[in-house]
Amino acid sequence: MIRTVLCAALFCLLPVIPAALAQDEHDHEARIGNLTIVHPWARATAAGGDTLVFMEIDNDGEAVQLAGAATAIATSVEIVGAALGADGKMTYRTVGAVQIAPGHFALEPDGLGLRLTGLSQDLVAGDEFELEVMFGNGEHLDLHVEVEAADATGHSHAGHSH
Question: Could you tell me the CATH superfamily of domain 30-148?
Answer without folding.
Answer: PCu(A)C copper chaperone (2.60.40.1890)
